[in-house]
Amino acid sequence: MINPNEKEIKKKIIATRRSIKNKLSILKHGEIAQEKKFLPITKHLKQIEHKLDGKKEDTSNSTVMKKDVEASDMKFITNEIMKTEDLFTPSFTISSSKEEDKLDFFKNYALLPKSYITKMFEDKEKDRRLQTFDYKYGVRYENGNFYIGNSPIEIHPNGDIELKNKLYTGTKGLYELLFKKKPTSYTEDDEKNYKKIALKTNLILRYYQPKQQIHGSILPKYKNILSDIYNTPKDVTKKQKEGGLLMKLTDNKPDYIYWDNPNELVERLKLLLSSHQAEMVKTKSSTDKKRQVVNEIHKPTRINFKRRRTILKSMYDLYQADLVEMIPYAKENNGYKYILIVINCFSKFVWAYALKDKSANEVCKAMEKILKIKSPKNLQTDQGKEFFNNAFKKLMKKYNVNHYSTFSEKKAAIVERVNRTLKNLMWKEFNYRGTYRWVDFLKEIVYKYNNTKHRTIGMKPTDVTKKHEKQLLNTIYSHIKISKLNNKFKIGDQVRISKIRGIFDKGYTANWSTEIFKIKKVNLTNPTTYILEDDKNNEIQGGFYEYQLQKVKYPDVYLVEKILKKKNNKVLVKWLGFNNTHNSWIDKNNIV
């Protein structure tokens, strides 16, 4: 058997080699200079380790194993370890078990890794129900090392991540995915790198072991990111290639832009192509129609286009309000998690109040402070429950304010643009001050905004008074002329509606609704908007722009979601995009 002292020495050899490797990666010398400088140590370490690994118990009659390392070698390596022990320490190993020692170890790390590691140690001390860090699908700390899945993970002082000799650039998005239960602000590249790490470490397999069952979770992080990392596309069968049922595609709950129909929310579509024409047969003509429907559904959508302007009639005609979430930084800000932003759309003057939660009571208190100064005729917000509740409704009635929301994905566009400007100013302060404590300078950046010349009105928001109202109304807020160009659609046209698409949605999924609608009314606005109705003549809420509609070439061709029953030569089908009241029996020969 190997001498216990030799085992201990071998462990020190491995730890020292790892330390040398970590330090080499951050030195500013070239690879050749590094190799020459450390060759006397690394070469001898490799030789000693090779001897220790190579000399196993003899399988012959010999009962005593030969010594693995000569005395001179032992003496040499022990001395070398002592020399390098203080200089080379593993970049991710922490020897002390005390919390202050852990934090002291990372004091020389960059702000990004130090922030997440420090918060992880703090989060670990919380009640499990209050923890925001992910110790199941994220990084965990055990016995002085960081782990993810079944593998140790190395966090370099500059923030880069190393796993199994693969180096990943340390970005805020990747750290969000590696540490948080509910990650935010990550890019597509961050998501790809996180998935690669998950695959390498068996992250979603039980016990992190290969060939084990998938260990799922109800967390959005699992459902939205990790659940499909082992999925592979199904093969299209011969029958499917000829026509009829096609393989299913993954579609993460597509929505209409304005029309809130839950029947459109269908996960993992089993069928793409089929028809609803009673007399349709498998001919070249029907195949061409099927192809046309597919082309219509997958036609690229246009997101950025000219929209209607906000028309103002007086200085206090319209305010817009919105909540900015600052939840990740609540601990550094005395528990404040939100900022209520309100803007006078005419003067561009802004108010901002810190809130500890978005309850109706908390929002109403802050809003009333603004209304006491001067209440507007109208207030526009998004459709959040923090604004649409009985308490807020009573407040609006008290100050005689007309409160409303739009159906557009742009919502209150003016205040959302202000949110972006204020966030930009805040993050500059974060970087300058080296802290995420925003409550100390919120008033300062709002004051700076209100006292800066605004590009739209050509003056500072704080300088706008009632005497400037007429001047601005005649210039900036003058009435818009109605376009006399011919409209693209007319009443009675049958159209599809574009689907809203998020930043990270897959580009190959359907872009347009499967259900078909009819133009009910044409509004001569600038640009023109259209009112729609469904097949039961029910008007769809909200107006639609030209670029959000697509005229249908074959309005009688529909797609099948699934076959429910079969009986003789008939099949009961559920139509894609329609509720169960539209289920119908058709001749199975009519399925193309």
From TrEMBL:
<dbReference type="InterPro" id="IPR016197">
    <property type="entry name" value="Chromo-like_dom_sf"/>
</dbReference>
<dbReference type="Pfam" id="PF00665">
    <property type="entry name" value="rve"/>
</dbReference>
<feature type="domain" description="Integrase catalytic">
    <location>
        <begin position="296"/>
        <end position="469"/>
    </location>
</feature>
<dbReference type="InterPro" id="IPR036397">
    <property type="entry name" value="RNaseH_sf"/>
</dbReference>
<dbReference type="Pfam" id="PF26634">
    <property type="entry name" value="DUF8207"/>
</dbReference>
<dbReference type="GO" id="GO:0003676">
    <property type="term" value="F:nucleic acid binding"/>
</dbReference>
<feature type="domain" description="Chromo">
    <location>
        <begin position="558"/>
        <end position="592"/>
    </location>
</feature>
<dbReference type="GO" id="GO:0015074">
    <property type="term" value="P:DNA integration"/>
</dbReference>
<dbReference type="InterPro" id="IPR058520">
    <property type="entry name" value="DUF8207"/>
</dbReference>
<dbReference type="InterPro" id="IPR012337">
    <property type="entry name" value="RNaseH-like_sf"/>
</dbReference>
<dbReference type="InterPro" id="IPR001584">
    <property type="entry name" value="Integrase_cat-core"/>
</dbReference>
<dbReference type="GO" id="GO:0005694">
    <property type="term" value="C:chromosome"/>
</dbReference>
<dbReference type="InterPro" id="IPR000953">
    <property type="entry name" value="Chromo/chromo_shadow_dom"/>
</dbReference>
<protein>
    <submittedName>
        <fullName>Integrase core domain</fullName>
    </submittedName>
</protein>
